[in-house]
Specification:
Chain lengths: ~400, ~400
Amino acid sequence: MSARVAGVRLAATAAGICYQGRDDLVLIDCGGRASVAAVFTRNAFCAAPVRVAREHLAAGAPRYLLVNAGNANAGTGEPGLRAARRCCAIAARALGVEAGAMLPFSTGVIGEPLPLEPFEQALPVLAEALDEDAWDAAARAIMTTDTVPKRVTRTATIDGHAVTVTGIAKGAGMIRPDMATMLAYVATDAAVPRALLQTMLERAVAPSFNSITVDGDTSTNDACVLIASGAGGLRIEAADSEAARALQALVDRVCLALAADLVRDAEGATKLVAIRVEQAANEAEARRVAYTVAHSPLVKTALFASDPNWGRILAAVGRAGIEGLVIERVAIWIGQLRIVSRGGRDPGYTEEAGQAAMAPRELEIRIALGRGDAEARVLTCDLSYDYVRINAEYRT
Amino acid sequence: MSARVAGVRLAATAAGICYQGRDDLVLIDCGGRASVAAVFTRNAFCAAPVRVAREHLAAGAPRYLLVNAGNANAGTGEPGLRAARRCCAIAARALGVEAGAMLPFSTGVIGEPLPLEPFEQALPVLAEALDEDAWDAAARAIMTTDTVPKRVTRTATIDGHAVTVTGIAKGAGMIRPDMATMLAYVATDAAVPRALLQTMLERAVAPSFNSITVDGDTSTNDACVLIASGAGGLRIEAADSEAARALQALVDRVCLALAADLVRDAEGATKLVAIRVEQAANEAEARRVAYTVAHSPLVKTALFASDPNWGRILAAVGRAGIEGLVIERVAIWIGQLRIVSRGGRDPGYTEEAGQAAMAPRELEIRIALGRGDAEARVLTCDLSYDYVRINAEYRT
């Protein structure tokens, strides 16, 4: 299936920002009729490019995205902010637009000055090379310690129009020393008004990119962008239309698939694990329990060992701080196997069955709290020797 | 310095509850005039002995503590509760007291039935063996995966009386597969009314046992007991007396020293690290920031690597969820070295100095938020290969 999204062109090049012998700079042209929506990291220490991108997004009509790997331009203070603005100016000059049309993004080492010379050299080349077929090249160029590029394309026919949604993403886990983390760019050829596009993005992000966790650390540079180029046939006007719901579903599928790909490729991960919490009093407590289990180093090391360690899961549920939790109503499943009922080991449980349930590379832990009908689902991975190795290697 | 606390006698024996060839059952006689105070795990899934100990403590005047290692009697449901009550009855019969005089404690494997035969065999022996000089034997007998026993004794002269405080403790980190965790017993020969003793214990525990974290997991069996035997010369009556403050200080010192010993001996730990957060708007936010840094796997792996990775510390501070945090006011030190000022790398920072500051086995990370004058301090350790190894080993 072609990744192409009518109206959206991309280019990647080896600018030499940090890496040698590989592409590390990407330019994306959203097209003259595009709406662009974005969400950013909630970390108070957001990086310089995040601040500039937020400003430009708020000010007007952004058209181009400029993404570099190898240097996060984070923790760089005022000089970093000036560098992010300067990158936009350099790109704007090469493209013949105002600097405000540029959204800058950076990922890589924290605390190093961002060199501007590579941008000066590369931008004229990138401006000439823009191409609708460069999605895979762009997915590779934004990688830092990712081991595989992530690109997902889904299509549907909505209101009689063929619609494409393509997304690329990099990095989950605050990755190798000082590499900062998740970037995702998703585009559709549908036309969507800006405000509706922002709503659509926030809806898609909540159960996908905002429901994955590798180590609980939030990067300073996280960003996710949704582009509606308007170059295809579908025009969405009303949020409550059948077509809007169909497009939302398509965007959701792309974001969910990319999010799962990020966790699969997380640092040292050997397992992709969905933590589903059901029968909660409300969604907030369901998420709280899911994240407590997903972040427990004891649960994560047990997952690495494929150890059906129900005691650790139970203990993590117990310390999630849920007021009035009744132990006797809690049940837990690994895949189809019930391992805990009435707050203790299920009577039918056997170690053999438990080990078989833990064996797959991708599995679900389901926790029923017996308090209501709210639920939440979080994707995570295990904690392995390689996580420690990757993150303990010195930043050289 | 003798560990002896007048009026308090102990005995340990190899009951064969789980371990072979080592002591695993301890009886402590607080003495006929003792006050006893205790605090327990906040985990909703508390173990059976914790429930029984709470009941007996609330009902009247507990005199004996019974502690077994090797089996946590947690996640064992109604049969577990019956087993915990039965242990108390067995011990009470051997000692010629009511079952309500016993406080039971268990640590070890979760989810296995607690065998009662070892208690039947051992209790008559233990009752005969009680001795004021058995603190070190007791410290060894309550160990699970601890590598060294922990016993601390401090003395002072208060109101002209020589006062001793001795404490023993085991386990930090929810330890090896299914071993559940912290137990501490602290005794003084002073006489202290029960209510005041409880206040004294809660004050001592807050900055010590409740301010340490290995992996953020809370055990189902945690308990800390403070015994005032009343067999020495000092009698405390009023909470606001000079003598009460002096005794509080002595108990604080013992609890702090034991807490640090627990973290030093945590699973796989190679470093003891104090996270001190200053200039916070209130203590709650200071603790929140300290715990976020202390639990960050990225900070912990950097500590393991002795990597002065200020970007990770900064990012953890940034994601602690402090409303209105102004980046430019944040400063961070490792030991005496300022690594972050005005929210970015300190201008005077060098990698050489950073590495030298990270080299010691015990160090302090100090974080100033520039928002007020509240502070908090948390003790933690690094995250090493051995943590993963210990916790990924299968429960056999």
